């Protein structure tokens, strides 16, 4: 979770059963926390530290920070997964030409996913056996659109043709199928929340609203997707199970909310995001569709990732 205080200073924070921990950062403008993973008793959080115009990718293991770059050029980290004893982190790093390059760090060692001639970003990753799946996007250059992409062990699959702007936010594995969540811009200017199953697209929202799919979770035979949709000036959280919408209480007109990550524990479905109830966004968790505020709304907070038993 990320909290924004006075002067725009951001604090990367973790809530565990109501107890808040602020993650240490040397950034003059703080840091964000954007992804989480757990192995045994170890909790990994990834994020981006900010100092002026520069950013720096890092992760925390049980609250202790570890930097992924030397900070000479900007970078960012957005997702983390564990494969055996290796810590895998997806993000980006700026190259000497000034382009941002989709990157995966494996126990601190970076691997670029593109040749660096265009801006690209890695936003999510998943592991299946020895395979590493990464979702992200690449800019086509100039004023052109972004294309949604997925990499399997470094080999790219292009999910969109570039005729519309698109972004892949999250990736998961369902048996032998690779499923990716994101959005494609519609012809009327509204984004359409999408999933791609082995490259085949399915729309989750219709063009009358502007939607985005932000997280995908494969749980047994079921595929859960979280996201949001903007309709009639109100931003609402969304949750889909196997393509069918499930209710998430949003609070009505003017009570904006978004959903960023979904997890399942037993028969309970948890979604984390943020909701605006008192003029500021406050981090929230929805349990089986009912929201619970994590913070009191006195400052802006953004829920981005959740772990459940």
Describe the structure.
This protein is mostly beta strands and 309 residues long. The chain has one domain (33-263): TolB, C-terminal domain (Neuraminidase), CATH 2.120.10. Helices cover 0% and strands 63% of the residues. It is built from no helices and 28 strands. It has a four-stranded antiparallel beta sheet, with no helix packed on it. The radius of gyration is 18 Å and the shape is globular. The mean pLDDT is 92.
Task: Indicate the proportion of strand residues.
Answer: over 45%
- Biggest sheet character: 4 strands, antiparallel
How do the strands of the widest beta sheet line up side by side? 3-2-1-28
How far is the first residue's CA from the last residue's CA? 18 Å
The residue ranges in which pLDDT falls below 50 over 5 or more consecutive positions are: none
Approximately how much helix is present in the residues? Answer: under 10%
The class by helix and strand makeup works out as mainly beta
CATH class: Mainly Beta
Oligomer, anyone?
single chain
Mean pLDDT comes to: 92
The helix tally amounts to: 0
> Order of SSEs, N→C?
EEEEEEEEEEEEEEEEEEEEEEEEEEEE
CATH topology, what is it called?
A: Neuraminidase
CATH superfamily: TolB, C-terminal domain
Domain count, please report it.
1
Count of beta strands: 28
Rg, Cα atoms, Å: 18 Å
From the structure above, extract its key features.
single chain; about 300 residues; mainly beta; Neuraminidase; four-stranded antiparallel beta sheet; about 0% helix
SSE topology sketch:
Elements: E1 2-4, E2 10-16, E3 19-22, E4 31-39, E5 42-51, E6 54-61, E7 64-67, E8 75-83, E9 86-94, E10 100-106, E11 109-112, E12 120-128, E13 131-139, E14 146-152, E15 155-158, E16 166-174, E17 177-185, E18 191-197, E19 200-203, E20 210-219, E21 222-231, E22 234-241, E23 244-246, E24 257-265, E25 268-276, E26 281-287, E27 290-293, E28 300-302
Antiparallel strand pairs: 1-2, 1-28, 2-3, 4-5, 5-6, 6-7, 8-9, 9-10, 10-11, 12-13, 13-14, 14-15, 16-17, 17-18, 18-19, 20-21, 21-22, 22-23, 24-25, 25-26, 26-27
């Amino acid at each position: 979770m990320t909290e924004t205080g006075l002067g725009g200073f951001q604090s990367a924070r973790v809530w565990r059963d109501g107890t808040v921990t602020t993650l240490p950062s040397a950034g003059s403008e703080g840091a964000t926390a954007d992804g989480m993973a757990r192995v045994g008793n170890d909790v990994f959080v990834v994020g981006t530290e900010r100092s002026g115009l520069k950013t720096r990718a890092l992760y925390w293991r049980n609250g202790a920070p570890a930097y992924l770059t030397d900070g000479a050029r900007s970078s960012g980290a957005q997702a983390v997964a564990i494969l055996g004893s290796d810590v895998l982190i997806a993000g980006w790093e700026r190259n000497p030409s000034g382009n941002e390059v989709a990157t995966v760090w494996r126990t601190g060692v970076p691997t670029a996913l593109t040749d660096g001639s265009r801006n690209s970003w890695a936003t999510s990753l998943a592991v299946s056996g020895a395979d590493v799946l990464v979702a992200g996007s690449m800019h086509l250059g100039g004023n052109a659109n972004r294309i949604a992409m997925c990499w399997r062990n470094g080999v790219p699959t292009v999910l969109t043709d570039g005729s519309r702007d698109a972004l892949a936010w999250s990736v998961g594995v369902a048996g032998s199928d690779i499923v990716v969540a994101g959005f494609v811009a519609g012809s009327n200017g509204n984004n359409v929340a999408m999933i791609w199953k082995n490259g085949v697209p399915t729309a989750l929202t219709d063009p009358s609203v502007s939607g985005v799919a932000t997280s995908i979770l494969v749980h047994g035979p079921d595929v859960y997707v979280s996201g949001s949709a903007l309709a009639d000036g109100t931003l609402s959280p969304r949750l889909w199970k196997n393509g069918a919408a499930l209710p998430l209480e949003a609070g009505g007109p003017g009570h904006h909310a978004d959903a960023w990550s979904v997890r399942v524990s037993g028969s309970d479905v948890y979604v984390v995001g943020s909701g605006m109830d008192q003029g500021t966004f406050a981090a929230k968790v929805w349990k089986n569709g009912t929201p619970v505020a994590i913070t009191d709304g006195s400052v802006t907070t953004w829920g981005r990732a959740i772990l459940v038993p």
